[in-house]
Write a structure and sequence with these properties.
By secondary structure, the protein is of the alpha/beta class. It has 20 helices and nine strands. The longest helix has 28 residues. The N terminus is likely disordered.
Length: about 475
């Protein structure tokens, strides 16, 4: 066995005739790279070192309805403070807290719905408590809470069927009303237009609109007086400033105004944020395809597989299997937590192992333990059953690797970028650094590249380069 930075790598035999090849490679590592390797062995990457604290802290804030969850500016300040203090990338924190929030929403949604008729709607209707205030009381995202209110308050939604298959029947019968889910979604996308008419509000909620309508008329008169005053005194009263009032005249109903208020107060949910997340996911899929093409690795995309009628479609199905360096010889898949000594010892036992992969799935999120084990892993296992072992690539990092289940060693995990080295079926080892997808050392999670840029900044540059390259 060689020592130091000279080592022998052996690729085990894999599917599709993947050759068992022994390749001797000399890697010269800088002191900075050695520090990165030591951090990897000691499990000291920032998001790993502080994972328990961050998860517990965010869960506490979510469960107790912390005020910053209802104020986008304060939400941004809090996350940036945590990022600067703990040296954890902002994108990592943003994805983690949303994953934890989704878990909270799934757990508490039945309770909120159960109290809607008995408590929340009477508070909204008779006591004039705003949707945002009720969401704060429920410790529930304001955008999602506003959807419940819209479903109950708008007459056509409260009477419409909530049938996901109703779209097909609408084609047969054009006069049939659209289903509730689509109607509510349209209302949440543009409440100022869709919820502008009082006639849309169920009659039992008209009384709650009367005060708003009176205040709206008063506000219109005040705006007219201010406009006349500005014309006589040459004072600039822009329409943008006039519409910052809590009872701005541009909203036709109280419901429309308060739904818009809830959307603006939600830092994690809403039509614009959902669209942004969707586009980010597409961008990183483009980046992955771009990197593989630059490395001359043939593959089929998810769209290619769908055209063939494939039932299960990973983002990338490799035309020929490749091999990636094993992160470590942990007892992964047990969910057990290993200490730092176990991590280092495990790494030293077998530092030359390679893992064969046949597919890659791109995830533009942080892979926390719950999300990975309950959502991502079942999807990945379906790919394993059809195509063999593969790689899940978390572009915003993941929890400590020893906590993530791996389907008996068939689902491999990487964070922030492609593995730094890839072995082809002919035994040739290529470095992904030249394509911008990795570093010169095996550590896949180092937070600084040789140019001094953060991995997030490098990934953003790759997005731009991939999108402009066509």
């Amino acid at each position: 066995m060689t020592t130091g930075s000279d080592f022998t790598r052996r690729a085990p035999a894999g599917p599709s005739g993947f050759a068992a090849v022994t390749t001797t490679t000399t890697v010269h590592q800088s002191p900075q790279q050695n520090n990165h390797n030591n951090n990897y062995k000691n499990n000291k990457r920032p998001e790993h070192l502080h994972y328990d604290y961050l998860e517990n802290h965010f869960l506490y804030c979510i469960n107790t309805g912390h005020p910053f969850l209802f104020d986008p500016l304060e939400f941004d300040r809090q996350l940036r403070h945590q990022s600067e203090t703990l040296h954890v990338p902002y994108e990592c924190l943003l994805s983690l807290i949303r994953n934890l929030s989704l878990r909270h929403v799934k757990k508490t949604s039945p309770k909120v719905k159960a109290r809607l008729q008995s408590y929340y709607l009477p508070q909204y209707n008779h006591h004039r408590v705003s949707i945002l205030q009720l969401a704060q009381q429920a410790h529930y995202p304001p955008y999602l809470f506003a959807r419940f209110i819209v479903e109950a308050v708008v007459a056509q939604f409260s009477a419409a069927p909530n049938n996901n298959n109703n779209h097909q029947s609408t084609k047969k019968n054009p006069n049939q009303k659209p289903n509730k889910k689509k109607g509510v979604t349209d209302a949440m996308r543009d409440p100022q237009r869709v919820l502008a008419c009082l006639e849309q509000i169920a009659p039992e909620f008209h009384a709650s609109e009367e005060l708003f309508q009176q205040q709206r008329q008063q506000r219109q008169q005040q705006e007219q007086q201010q406009l006349q005053s500005s014309q006589s005194t040459n004072v600039d009263f822009s329409s943008a400033n006039l519409h910052n009032s809590p009872t701005a005249a541009c909203f036709g109903t109280r419901l429309a105004y308060e739904v818009n208020q809830a959307i603006q107060a939600d830092p994690m949910y809403g039509p614009m944020l959902d669209k942004q997340r969707h586009l980010v996911g597409i961008e990183y899929e483009v980046v992955l395809e771009y990197l593989l093409r630059k490395l001359d690795i043939p593959f089929e995309t998810e769209e290619d597989l769908r055209e063939k009628g494939t039932a299960r479609t990973p983002d990338i199905l490799l035309s020929c299997p490749i091999a990636i360096p094993a992160a470590s010889s942990l007892a992964a898949g047990t969910g057990a937590l290993h200490n730092n000594t176990d991590l280092a010892a495990s790494e030293n036992r077998n530092p030359k192992e390679w893992n064969v992969i046949c597919w890659i799935d791109s995830k533009a999120l942080f892979g926390d333990v719950y999300t990975h084990n309950t959502s991502v892993l079942p999807q990945a296992e379906s790919y394993v059953h059809r195509f063999g072992p593969g790689l899940v690539l978390y572009w915003f990092g993941h929890a400590p690797i020893e906590r993530l289940l791996n389907a008996g060693g068939d689902v491999h995990i990487a964070g922030w970028q492609l593995p730094s080295h890839i072995m082809l079926t002919n035994g040739k080892v290529i470095c992904t650094t030249s394509a911008g997808g990795g570093h010169d050392n095996i550590d896949q999670m180092t937070m600084t590249t040789t140019t001094g840029k953060s991995t997030v900044e490098t990934n953003n540059d790759l997005v731009t380069e991939a999108m402009t390259s066509g």
